[in-house]
UniProtKB/TrEMBL annotation:
It comes from the Bacteria. This is Phytanoyl-CoA dioxygenase family protein. InterPro entries: Phytyl_CoA_dOase-like. Keywords: Dioxygenase, Oxidoreductase. Pfam families: PhyH (PF05721). One of its GO terms (molecular function) is dioxygenase activity. The keyword Secreted does not apply. Coiled coil: none annotated. The keyword Oxidoreductase applies.
Length: 336
């Protein structure tokens, strides 16, 4: 008989416990806001990192490649966002592996969790914004278990460019790009009417054709947040942001992505060799049968002890009347 596996997270005094209603809301609406999830010290650490990033960047938007069709090319050149700081900075790694964030991820898509990606958003006045998109369009996990955690490092509202979401759109498939290789999550030709989309993430709804699908839903809602709040959102959820329209406020946030650590990941932000990028992703909770990386800066993570098979297993036994009855198998109990 095979070994039973029940993930048991290490107990901590500040462990965050997800409510059943929270779990239900996330899977129904595609998002969940955990208010005040991060402690002030944790927010301050990431805010200071955002400031270090901002002050250390010299940008010239004229350097953007005029031939590029990437709708976010100006944002990357002007460095309103910085990808994968978690691979080069210990504070960024700590932020991505914050145990209270992982508590929620573990409950929503776990119990085994990979930490995949980090992005620091700065969004100064007049900059930032990203049109309608779905995150699994960019980051592929199979099975598709991707989830985002959007950490507010300061108060966020409609004026300085909060996120907008379409509740319930997480039940949509991922709309693929017209060209091969981009945004294809589902089996090719599995749908009779899954139309391709163009210019995903473009701010202009007349150009970004995913907006035509968004239009079938009730009006999107803004997600206003306080510093320390964390928005968890499904990878199929339609979401977007607008440029910061204030003259004196930034919109600093730290956004990370995770998935179930049993998923195969033919993706990595910095590239990978072979058939998958699993070996580059940090195992943040539980265990996995797949390759994984360890935290580069030694941030503590709470993994399952593979030698701990102390939990009892349950098997189904057929009864004389044709019904099936669950039977608890003690760890040291002999099997006839």
């Amino acid at each position: 008989m095979g070994n039973n596996y029940t993930q048991k997270s290490r107990q901590r005094q500040d462990r965050y416990l997800v409510g059943v209603k929270d779990y239900t809301q996330y899977h129904r609406d595609g998002y969940l806001i955990a208010k005040g999830l991060l402690a002030e010290d944790d927010v301050r650490m990431l805010f200071n990192l955002a400031e270090q990033s901002r002050l250390g960047i010299k940008t010239d938007i004229s350097q953007a490649d005029p031939s590029s069709k990437d709708p976010l090319k100006d944002e990357f050149v002007s460095a309103t966002r910085v990808h994968m700081l978690s691979r080069v900075n210990s504070d960024a790694e700590q932020g991505m592996l914050n145990p209270r964030i992982l508590d929620v991820i573990e409950a929503l898509v776990g119990p085994d969790v990979y930490a995949l990606q980090s992005m620091m958003f700065l969004n100064p006045p007049g900059r930032g914004g990203q049109g309608w998109h779905q995150d699994s369009y960019y980051v592929k996990t199979l099975p598709d278990t991707l989830i985002g955690a959007w950490i507010a490092l300061e108060d966020v509202d409609e004026e300085n460019g909060c996120l907008w979401v379409v509740p319930g759109s997480n039940h949509e498939p991922i709309y693929p790009a017209a060209h091969a290789g981009g945004g294809h999550v589902h089996a090719v030709d599995a749908f009779s009417d899954l139309n391709s989309v163009e210019n995903v993430s473009h701010l202009d709804d007349d150009v970004n054709t995913l907006s035509k699908v968004v239009a079938h839903y009730p009006p999107p809602i803004p997600v206003t947040m306080k510093a320390g709040d964390v928005l968890f959102f499904h990878s199929h959820l339609f979401h977007r942001s607008y440029p910061n329209r204030t003259t004196d406020r930034y919109r600093r946030s730290y956004v990370c992505h995770y998935c179930n650590a049993r998923s195969w990941i033919p993706w990595d932000h910095d590239g990978y060799e072979g058939n998958s990028g699993n070996y580059r992703q940090i195992l943040a909770r539980g265990r996995t049968h797949l390759p994984y990386a360890e935290p580069a800066f030694g941030t503590e993570v709470f993994l399952s002890d593979e030698d701990d098979d102390s939990s009892d297993s349950v098997r189904m036994m057929g009864m004389d009347d044709g019904m099936m009855m669950p039977v608890v198998q003690k760890k040291d109990e002999a099997i006839d």
